[in-house]
Design a protein that fits this description.
Two copies of one chain form a homodimer.
Chain A: H1 4-15, H2 18-29, E1 32-33, H3 34-38, H4 45-57, E2 61-66, E3 69-74, H5 80-88
Antiparallel strand pairs in A: 1-3, 2-3
């Protein structure tokens, strides 16, 4: 288990990439086999596998192999760390009076 | 106004960097002058200004100059696009029965 900030870093770096984010969006609906994941991206399988590796290292997805078929799932609570961070940023914003700004 | 996916991309790329994320966390509490923002990072001012530029381009922060003092604020609703995206990923996950996995 990574520490909070490391985990948050890994998750944000993983989903900052549009392809990896699209994979997460797809897996949020249901698990999928690797070949089905690759299809909409017109991407070579090795490239997709690299993206999946980043998502797996970030703790976002997990996969299981049955025979020659690998099925990828979004981990339960995969995005919890991001929910947590966003929740922390909800502190109401104070307005600093211009007259009090340091000179 | 950037489109949703472009805005989401820009926000995620901006906060995937730990320094920029720390600036956002600081500004979520209250606006701050640039010199005060720089202090905790033991970072040269030009480097901080570059980070602020990225945050500003992503629509996360805004700044106002009064005399020689620039005050930076988190934009209202700055992180809304991320809340929205996270909300979309809440679709309950279906469990694929192993026996139904394609062969």
């Amino acid at each position: 288990m990574l520490k909070y900030h490391d985990e948050l870093n890994a998750v944000l770096r993983a989903i900052a990439d549009p392809t990896r984010r699209a994979v997460v969006e797809r897996l949020a609906k249901s698990p999928a086999v690797v070949s089905d994941l690759a299809a909409p991206f017109s991407m070579a399988l090795p490239s997709l596998m690299q993206h999946l590796r980043v998502l797996e290292d970030a703790g976002l997805v997990t996969s299981q192999k049955h025979g020659r078929v690998r099925t990828v799932s979004l981990r339960t609570g995969a995005l919890d760390v991001l929910h947590l961070w966003l929740g922390e940023q909800r502190t109401p914003q104070k307005i600093m009076p211009t007259g009090l700004a340091p000179t």
